[in-house]
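Sanity check

After download, print the first record. It should look like this:
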Amino acid sequence: MAGTPALDEFRQLFGDEREDYQEALQCYYQSGPAPDWSDHFVTAYASAHAWEDFAETWAHYLHIVDTLEMAGAFGLYINPPLAKAGELEAEVDFHPYRPPDVETLVGTWIPLSNALNSLNRTMGQPDVYPFVLLPAVIKKLGAIHDLIHGDGLAAAPAESQETLQPAP
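Expected structure tokens:
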């Protein structure tokens, strides 16, 4: 596996897995994440080590796919009247486990997660999905998507991705 393109791609996206894991965790627990962790990682803990970044990104991909599947099963359609055309609109009209690309997942997830967060807030509950998906994280989600669908770790360029912000 050493020297393979997949390993090089993994290291470019998630970091160098050869870094001492116990030492990395010890450093994380002593010093915490870097102040700009949210620009590069889905969670603060993902910044601790390349394996944690991979695992946390994988978990978030599964959360997104599973939630979209359940929303589709219930026939949920998001189209708030105050939204600009298509801005917060979403309909799960595809099979979440076989989407054409990560853009379809993320583009549907953004309005759905905003709606779920808003519903929870009306009940005095915390956000269901309090995470912000910035371009670097979306690129990693794209790599997970491509890996699952047999396309290696190649991912869509982060510049073409939207940013997920929790609903105000």
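If your output differs, re-run the checksum step. Summary of this record's structure: The chain has one domain: 5-160.
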